[in-house]
User: Which sequence fits this backbone?
């Protein structure tokens, strides 16, 4: 299994990258998060660059589940890549409905449950995001596992006091894996105009700037749960992939780097296999969690 | 031409890079494929620095000139990225992604025999319009080019546009050159001299307030207008949904469905 995937929201519907990457060579494509109903997303500006980072407040703009199954999924299937569909909802019920709809044939290969997008608000929990509430996380994962019975990956937010607690709740709920991290809360201000640079005022930070924090989150969660951990956060090179795996990631997702260089995937994969060769490591499991402390 | 809308990442040699006004630089790069594939109104995304994450993203650059072996950009130094770009020297290599976006509707010009082509640029908006004027100059089209700038010293592209054969009308805010006032006021005076609506077309590029005025003028005088409207971008290829533009046809993307739009479909804050 190719453990290098591309993150939700960073690869469009795949079609946008057809001039640059053969999708079949990608370990898995996590699709842009889909909700039951179509969403228009947040007002522009939705993206703004910060030092070594990117703030986004896209707001889960998507055409809804029906449009996804009809217009996007078939095209992705034809590329021969593995498809992991990211789903979300505003309430527990919407998550369940979306998962059930997504799971009807033709279905993706797995689901990534987006409990952690910082640009939306969930209703019915104690906090703004279900992924900030271990009780809700466990409850939703349990109900989705019941509804779909397929492979469930739960994407976590780092905007919590203790991400280990949330990861354990996902594990108890029956998650097959956890992916972390989603973006960090952040904002940018234009002192000249005295205005926020994002139309939504706040957004989520990604890119190389967050790698140190994401590595720590992966390390913490790896040491707290038994299920596989998928690492996300500022990966730009093959060496970055190795760093995440040493901290405990079994697989990783490339995100923001796709915006810098749409053809980066094969280069980064090659760098990673080069690292493995140099270290004379032939199996991923001989790298995962092997940080020497 | 590039009917399939193919995009490439190219390593292009810098042929020239010089300061040409107080604020503006002109850079020429060797890019034979891009020169053939790009349309007026399209742009490219350039990596300003090598081996750096700051700036992280590429810089969108409107294509100013197309020549057989390459393309030119007219740009201002406004931040980290453009400052790095200004330091690039002849012979160095630039990482360029393009061509991106949808340019001006050239098929429309072929279909309809427009008697009057009107172009309106506000400040830096001269960039894609110069490219368009050059493209149309080989066809012997009659172009009235209204060029607006803050002061005489802020005017860029005047001689290049004039070389295309367009009749250039200048407006400056302070009157240090040409008409004193908004370039759109100058346009209105021109339209009031009796140009019919259906056989004219307006191409406009400039700051948001100017685009809003052009939209109004277009509706008031019944002249179709194509305008550039851009938004902060991340990927430039339509994948991230960052550069959302609100239109009556739903959310569109400046990098993929634009940056050229029919003025009438844009939903502007001033509407």
Assistant:
């Amino acid at each position: 299994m190719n453990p290098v995937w591309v993150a939700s929201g960073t690869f469009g519907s795949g079609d946008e990258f057809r001039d640059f990457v053969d999708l079949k060579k990608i370990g898995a494509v996590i699709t842009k998060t889909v909700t039951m109903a179509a969403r228009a997303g947040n007002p522009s500006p939705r993206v703004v660059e910060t030092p070594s980072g990117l703030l986004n407040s896209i707001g889960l703009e998507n055409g809804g589940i029906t449009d996804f199954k009809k217009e996007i999924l078939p095209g992705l299937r034809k590329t021969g890549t593995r498809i992991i569909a990211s789903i979300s909802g505003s309430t527990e019920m919407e998550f369940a409905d979306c998962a059930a709809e997504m799971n009807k044939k033709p279905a993706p290969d797995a689901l990534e449950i987006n409990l952690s997008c910082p640009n939306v608000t969930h209703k019915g929990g104690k906090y703004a995001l279900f992924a900030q509430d271990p009780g809700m996380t466990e409850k939703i994962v349990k109900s989705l596992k019941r509804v779909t019975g397929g492979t469930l990956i739960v994407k976590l937010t780092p905007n919590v006091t203790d991400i280990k607690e949330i990861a354990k709740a996902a594990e108890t709920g029956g998650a097959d894996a956890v992916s972390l991290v989603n973006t960090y809360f952040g904002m940018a201000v234009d002192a000249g105009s005295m205005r926020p640079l994002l139309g939504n005022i706040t957004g989520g930070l990604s890119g190389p700037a967050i790698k140190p924090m994401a590595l720590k989150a992966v390390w913490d969660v790896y040491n707290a749960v038994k299920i596989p951990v998928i690492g996300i956060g500022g990966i730009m090179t093959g060496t970055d992939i190795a760093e995440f795996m040493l901290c405990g990631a079994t697989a990783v997702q490339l995100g923001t780097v796709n915006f810098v260089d749409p053809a980066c995937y094969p280069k980064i994969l090659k760098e990673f296999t080069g690292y493995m060769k140099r270290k004379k490591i032939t199996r991923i499991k001989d790298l995962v969690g092997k940080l020497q402390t | 031409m590039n009917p399939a809308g193919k995009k490439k990442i190219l390593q292009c040699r810098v042929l020239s890079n010089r300061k040409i006004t107080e604020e503006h630089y002109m850079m020429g790069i060797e890019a034979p494929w891009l020169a053939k594939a790009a349309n007026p109104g399209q742009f490219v995304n350039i990596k300003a620095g090598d081996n750096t994450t700051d700036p992280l993203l590429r810089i969108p650059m409107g294509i100013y000139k197309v020549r057989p072996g390459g393309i030119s950009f007219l740009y201002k130094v406004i931040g980290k990225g453009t400052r790095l770009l200004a330091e690039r020297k002849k012979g160095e290599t630039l990482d360029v992604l393009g061509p991106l976006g949808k340019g001006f509707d050239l098929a429309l010009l072929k279909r309809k025999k427009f008697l009057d082509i009107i172009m309106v640029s506000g400040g830096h908006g001269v960039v894609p319009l110069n490219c368009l004027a050059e493209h149309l100059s080989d066809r012997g089209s009659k172009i009235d080019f209204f060029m607006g700038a803050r002061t005489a010293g802020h005017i860029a592209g005047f001689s290049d546009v004039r070389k295309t054969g367009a009749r250039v009308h200048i407006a400056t805010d302070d009157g240090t050159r040409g008409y004193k006032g908004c370039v759109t006021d100058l346009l209105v005076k021109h339209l009031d001299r009796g140009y019919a609506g259906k056989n004219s077309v307006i191409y406009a590029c400039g700051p948001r307030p100017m685009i809003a005025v052009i939209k109004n003028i277009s509706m008031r005088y019944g002249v179709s207008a194509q305008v550039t409207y851009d938004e902060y971008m991340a990927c430039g290829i339509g994948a991230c949904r960052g550069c959302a533009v609100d239109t009556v046809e739903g959310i569109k993307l400046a990098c993929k469905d634009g940056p050229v739009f029919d003025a009438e479909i844009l939903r502007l804050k001033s509407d």
